[in-house]
Design brief:
about 270 residues; alpha+beta; L-fuculose-1-phosphate Aldolase; 8 helices; 10 strands; globular
Length: about 270
């Protein structure tokens, strides 16, 4: 890999750095560590879930993603799979480079990167409280409402729940993209949850936050019907979040956008 002299955003931490600081092998190792940490953080179990980061190889837009059906404790850097990203979801099959097959859920990772410039990392887990709520008809129809102001961390006034579809299918990917319109996290009916971010650390932190919200909402439901904050208040919170928690990706995109409106991560 030939490093570029141009600074870019580290795909794990979101910190702007020089290319020589971040090699593909280093990113692969960090991807594995984050995948392993999900179980320690209580948001995943076994080989369930998957994580990815956007990773360019020269001019080729792509992503690095965890492999299919391999426990994370057994995963090494060579097991991580690189998948090319087409211009739009549902197009011809992408190129795959790896000794293993990519996660069975590679499709919604791919389609999120193809359609959203702000997606630099995606975390999908079977977090227990998110999954439990996502089995309830009320949540499937209405999502998690604004019972707590931190619901805004997911990007809107509520946390939507994508309708059920068989795992690994284009139908599921389509549901995910719709549920994540103007959002950074959503539940998946009878399945789990997804969080995305400008870097893997921020996507993981959001996944942990959403699982806490799901757990707290489930507890509140046991006590009665939770009160919900008004749209006006949630809009106020969202505005404050924009100023209080700016996405570092915004500055990078504004500085050096490529033909797709985003800055390339060299490798």
């Amino acid at each position: 890999m030939t490093p570029s002299p141009q600074s870019f955003m580290h795909p794990i931490t979101g910190v702007v750095c020089e290319p020589e600081v971040c090699t593909e092998d280093a990113v692969r190792a960090s991807l594995i560590e984050v995948a392993r940490s999900m179980q320690r953080l209580g948001i995943n179990h076994g080989s369930a879930g998957n994580v990815s980061v956007r990773w360019h190889r020269g001019a080729a837009d792509g992503m690095l993603i965890t492999p299919s059906a391999l426990p994370y404790e057994q995963c090494g850097v060579d097991d991580i799979v690189w998948v090319s990203i087409a211009a739009a979801q549902g197009t011809a099959a992408p190129q795959v480079d790896g000794v293993r097959r990519p996660s069975s859920e590679w499709r919604f990772h791919h389609d999120l990167y193809a359609s959203r410039a702000d997606a630099r990392a995606v975390v999908h887990t079977h977090a227990p409280h998110c999954t439990a709520l996502a089995c309830l008809p009320q949540i499937q129809q209405q999502g998690i409402p604004a019972f707590h102001y931190m619901v805004a961390a997911a990007g809107g006034r509520d946390i939507r729940c994508a309708p059920y579809a068989t795992f690994g299918t284009q139908a599921l990917s389509d549901h995910v993209l719709a549920a994540l319109t103007d959002r950074r996290a959503c539940l998946l009916a009878h399945h789990g949850m997804i969080a995305l971010g400008g870097a893997l650390d921020s996507a993981l932190a959001l996944a942990v936050e959403v699982e806490w919200l799901a757990r707290t909402y489930a507890l509140a439901l046991q006590l009665g019907t939770p009160a919900v904050l008004s749209d006006t208040e949630m809009d106020r919170v969202l505005d404050r979040f924009t100023r209080y928690r700016p996405d570092p990706l915004d500055d990078l995109l504004a500085d050096e956008p490529d033909a797709h409106g985003r800055s390339a991560v060299p490798s």
